[in-house]
Amino acid sequence: LRATQELRRSGYAGPVVALTxxxxxxxxxxxxxxxxNEHISKPVRRQALIDVIGRFTVSASxxx
Length: 64
What we know:
Blueprint: H1 2-9, E1 17-20, H2 25-33, E2 38-41, H3 46-55
Parallel strand pairs: 1-2
């Protein structure tokens, strides 16, 4: 949480995704409040991870 807050304070605007064993709603809310863009809890479902990464990446064909 502190690392994300520091990144945001320093001007980093890129995506930050939490990958944690904490699955409670309160933990997700804390991560988002700290400036993270998304929260994924373990065990990670492969497709869920792919979907989240896809939301924050641009393919070469999209950038043309």
